[in-house]
Amino acid sequence: MIKYETDSRLVTKGKTFVAIKGYTVDGHDYINQAIENGATFIISEKDLDITVPYLKVKDTEKYIEQKLEEEYSSNFKDLKIIGVTGTNGKTTTCYLIYQMLKELNKKAAYIGTIGFYLNDEIRELPNTTPDILSLYKLIMEAKEKEVEYIIMEVSSHALSLSRIAGINFDVAAFTNLSQDHLDFHKDMIDYLNAKKLIINHLKQKGTLIVNLDEETSKEFIFKNKLTIGKNGDYKITNYNYNPDSTDLEFTFKNNTYKVKTNLINEFNIYNYLMSLAILNNLDIPIENIIKITNKVYPPRGRCETIKVNDSYAVIDYAHTPDAVEKIIKAYKELNVGKVITVLGCGGDRDPKKRPIMGDIATSLSDKVIFTSDNPRTEDPKKILEDITKNNKSTNYEVIVDREKAIIKGISLLNKNDFLLILGKGHEDYQIIGTEKIHFDDAEVVRNNIN
Hints:
Layout: E1 4-5, E2 16-18, H1 31-36, E3 41-44, E4 54-56, H2 60-72, E5 80-85, H3 90-103, E6 108-112, E7 115-118, E8 121-123, H4 132-144, E9 149-153, H5 156-160, E10 169-174, H6 188-196, E11 202-211, E12 225-229, E13 234-241, E14 246-252, E15 255-261, H7 266-280, H8 286-292, E16 304-308, E17 311-316, H9 321-332, E18 339-343, H10 353-364, E19 367-370, H11 380-388, E20 396-398, H12 402-411, E21 418-422, E22 429-432, E23 435-438, H13 441-447
């Protein structure tokens, strides 16, 4: 049991409350509430007049990082911990690994964008990689339930903000890098440097696995490094994909392997091969992984395909220029019907990518409907103006209401067409202003199939 708490509402008798000044809430304002709830010691950045002992420190956030690392990280030494970073592919790769381990009768927990998965329990998380105290609590909970493997998505925010201090990986992986989060990182070099920090969290005998077909992978340097890709150690030699599966052939150490996956599109070949390579470097034979591959699926909202009469709707989380380009190209390459894309951009996030995504969508799709994503505190119309700024194409229309945009997209479908509904994926909400309201792209599709 971890003795520290940063949320006064969660304090119980005997806990130490650490008052952290966050972006929107200052923990110092809740010290009295923490004491009422049973806190017997307080860590503060200010002088206090209170009824329990306290310690004044310069930086409470740094204090709790150091204390967690000093007092609890040794509990994790027997766990096999996997960390995956990259702009795109983290969720699918980690979720595939989680499913594979379960199919191989291994006890595993997953921490990432779609939540905390432990045994048959699924819990929502506020961030891809939670704050350091929440993360330590989750790992401790998993360990108490005799989990052997922890699979984590590791965001650039988490690496930059030391959210994984004291957590070290048996295998760390880098999937790719493309424009995203430039509202947080000053430029792409800063973003790349944040991703590279994952190397500092590798165990001495750990393994780094990178996507060799990603240009920036050469920046990731570690003594024990393996690659996947068209010229990687795990070498893609052939593939063929259909609307609901992919046949993949690859080689490793002069052996050739063939496998059929329940994933589609070229980028999912990399996600699958990365998950296989990670497990193989945790001493699981490739043959054993291939045997259970037909039992694993992409996570909800990642190329989630819904049959709409004699056509298809695809729900995907693609929300960066690179991800949008890859998914539209992949469905165009199927050479079946038209590709119709529904797309928006989130508010209060990197505005520079908006016109880039707009241009990519209109240049690659047969038809585009631009709509709201999570506008947050921005005016949705202003976001849509940014997306369509200087777009010279005529194959798009703007429908601010996301539900109406999806319904319009469905109405345009003919035989073998694909409707790509991008940006929100697994999310079952929309953030308008500061309010989170229920909204699920897949649900809208299913409710409007004639």
